[in-house]
Design goal:
Layout (H helix, E strand, L loop, with lengths): L8 E4 L5 H8 L6 E5 L7 E3 L2 H10 L4 E3 L3 H8 L12 E4 L6 E5 L5 H12 L8 H6 L10 E3 L2 H12 L4 E4 L18 E5 L10 E6 L2 E5 L6 H11 L7 E7 L6 H10 L3 E4 L1 H7 L7 H8 L5 E3 L6 E5 L15 E6 L10 H9 L2 E5 H6 L8 E5 L4 H13 L3 E6 L8 H10 L4 H5 L1 E5 L4 H9 E2 L5 E5 L7 H13 L3 E5 L9 H10 L7 E6 L7 E6 L12 E5 L5 E4 L9 E4 L7
Parallel strand pairs: 1-2, 1-4, 2-3, 4-5, 8-9, 9-10, 11-12, 12-13, 16-19, 16-20, 17-18, 17-19, 21-28, 22-23
Antiparallel strand pairs: 5-6, 7-10, 11-15, 14-15, 23-26, 24-25, 24-26, 27-28
The structure holds S-adenosyl-L-homocysteine (SAH).
S-adenosyl-L-homocysteine binds next to helix 16, strand 24 and strand 26.
Length: 580
């Protein structure tokens, strides 16, 4: 019912719950089964229930937990003191015999309980009085509407529960089939209106988000000015559907800040479109609204602060008003395993409307979010991919460009910046660009081995696709002379079969055969291997393109690990201290 909600996570602690979980999963598009590791097989595995539930709850994911209600309550208890928007949380008996809505009364938990109850052929354990009596939660209007005052709403519902009848003023189509005690002459009224509640205790005011505010210029007190314009017309701030501005101002921080203060999306109209409307003053906020061509909206022309308002007859979908500022996030997925993906990168992936990248990495990002588009290519042309990402972002989309490891280490971030610097399309500069770091292969491999990068080191790509081989040889020679630990990316490939041997020859001319070497293959991925050896022992046949090669310095050393299997028999580290 609430379209803004994410698909639920169905939590399973053992195989006995899987059949019921599957039935719930089938009810919701893109729902996923999260199963306790080593106990049951789901779409997502987790190792610690409490931590996992809290993380999902913080992200606003609806939870259907197939376990005792008490377990769920205890897990989430530390988060409940902060009264913020809470997602629906339900406990469901493993065998599907009982469903108990626990939290999220205002985000549709009872709706979900009814849906699950209906699918399983059981009565949901609804405990909300208003909901029981009227069959719906009056305080949870559908998308596009906002309650004026929750406190007043609660008082109003308790009046109805105590026997008062109500009339309905304005358009409330979602209440058409609700069993309310209605009376056209009642003192109580549910009023659907963009105008502010006047404080009358007999009224429940619900605001349709039907107002657009347009601004023509940035201003540090923009939110105050918009609020003043609304006040002057008696319009409620909660009725605001969007803040509208000229596309040329997309990068302006004061606009973004005003929209955040007003809790509305910021949308833009291209001035060229606005100018087409008529031949009046181009610098006019009203003209931005006219470009939206809203049917039957009442327009309030620019005020002294250059703010114009339009009031439509029904809620407006902000996504259809002009366009959003596009966003381009270049992020690193880390080496592969989910727990080495930073929360910041995870959030950017979840937020993205489009993922762009090499097919292997796009797959590594996990299952797509509902509606998310994936542009996976086998194309190695990085600049072309970067340009494609900018084109998408210019349409107002939120694009995540994904690389493995860190995006700034032999990956997409530099290509994206190069594309931007060379761009002649001014719209590219207005895209909100962000680079989110990741755990690079050298760091992930080093951590597995111990601390081989504990002193000065360098990262080198042995690929001569983008630089002449002579440059690589020169850098290898100097790095070897400088006694730097070296991390080799792209050490070898089918198209570059001899280069690694030549590189090792250069290093061996300077470094002793006893120099420590670490090889990490598919680190942080299924089938990962880690080997340590000496430079003298290393052969290019030990290495492939999925391998990270770390060649130690003269001080890099190793010692035996206790109680580990053969392959991980020693710790390798480079001491912090270095003597001449
Ligand atoms: N941006 C990536 C590097 C891309 S270059 C990063 O920061 O990690 C690709 C090279 O990185 C591969 O040829 C290999 O040498 C190394 N590499 C990437 N992922 C790896 C992994 N999981 N295990 C070992 N080496 C890896």
């Amino acid at each position: 019912m609430n379209a803004a909600l994410r698909p639920p996570a169905v939590i399973v602690l053992g195989p006995g719950a899987l059949a019921t979980a599957q039935r719930v999963k089938a009810l919701y598009a893109h729902a996923q089964i999260h199963a306790l590791q080593d106990r049951a097989q789901g779409d997502v595995a987790f190792s610690e229930l409490g931590e996992h539930l809290r993380e999902l709850y913080r992200r606003g994911t609806p939870l259907v937990a197939l376990c005792a209600a008490g377990i769920v309550i205890r897990c989430l208890a530390p988060l409940l003191a902060n009264k913020g928007a809470e997602p629906p949380v339900l406990a469901l008996a493993e065998d599907g015999s009982a469903v108990v809505p626990l939290l999220g009364g205002l985000t549709g938990v009872n709706v979900m309980a009814r849906e699950i109850g209906a699918a399983l052929g059981i009565a949901p354990a609804i405990t909300t009085s208003g909901e029981l009596r009227f069959g719906t939660c009056l305080l949870n209007p559908p998308d596009g509407y906002a309650l004026s005052s929750l406190a007043q709403g609660k008082r109003f519902v308790s009046d109805l529960l105590a026997g008062d009848a109500t009339r309905i003023e304005g358009d409330a189509p979602w209440l058409d089939h609700v069993d309310l005690p209605r009376d056209a002459a009642a003192a109580h009224a549910i009023r659907v209106s963009p105008h502010v509640w006047d404080g009358d205790p007999a009224q429940l005011v619900i605001h349709p988000r039907s107002v657009v505010a347009a601004v023509r210029a940035p201003h540090e007190r923009l939110a105050d000015h918009v609020q003043a314009a609304l006040d002057e017309r008696g319009l409620a701030a909660a009725s605001l559907a969007a803040l509208l501005a000229p596309a040329a101002l997309m990068g302006d921080a004061s606009l973004a800040q005003a929209a955040a203060v007003l809790h509305v999306p910021l949308r833009f109209v291209d001035q060229a479109d606005a100018a087409n409307v008529a031949d009046a003053d181009h610098d006019n906020a009203s003209r931005l609204i006219e470009a939206l061509k809203l049917d039957d909206a009442t327009l309030h022309a620019d005020d002294a602060h250059g703010i114009a308002l339009a009031v439509a007859h029904a809620p407006l979908d902000a996504a259809t008003l002009g366009q959003a500022r596009g966003k381009l996030t270049v992020l690193g997925l880390g080496p592969g395993r989910a727990d080495l993906l930073t929360p910041m990168a995870r959030a950017a992936l979840d937020d993205a409307t489009d993922l762009v990248g090499y097919a292997t990495y796009v797959d590594m990002a996990g299952p797509p979010r509902p509606g998310q588009r994936r542009h996976a290519t086998d194309n190695r042309e990085e600049l072309q991919r970067a340009r494609h990402a900018f084109e998408l972002a210019c349409e107002g989309r939120r694009v995540a460009v994904v690389s493995s490891g860190d995006p700034g280490v032999f990956a997409m971030a530099a290509a994206v910046l190069e594309a931007l610097e060379g761009a002649d399309d001014p719209r590219w500069q207005r895209v909100e660009l962000q680079i989110v770091p990741g755990v690079s292969a050298a760091l992930a491999t080093a951590a597995q081995a111990g601390a081989p990068l504990g002193h000065d080191f360098c990262m080198l790509s042995l690929s001569d696709n983008l630089k002449p081989w002579a440059v690589i040889e020169k850098r290898l020679h100097h790095a070897a002379l400088a006694d730097l630990v070296m991390a080799f990316y792209n050490p070898i490939s089918r198209a570059r079969p001899w280069q690694l041997d030549r590189a090792l020859e250069i290093v061996r001319a300077v470094r002793a055969p006893a120099t420590r070497v670490v090889l990490g293959r598919d680190v942080g991925r299924p089938g990962e291997t880690l080997r340590t050896m000496t430079l003298g022992e290393l052969q290019s046949s030990d290495v492939d393109m999925r391998t990270m090669v770390i060649v130690g310095s003269s001080t890099t050393r190793g010692f035996a690990r206790e109680g580990t299997h053969e392959a991980l028999s020693e710790w390798v580290y480079t001491p912090r201290f270095y003597a001449e």
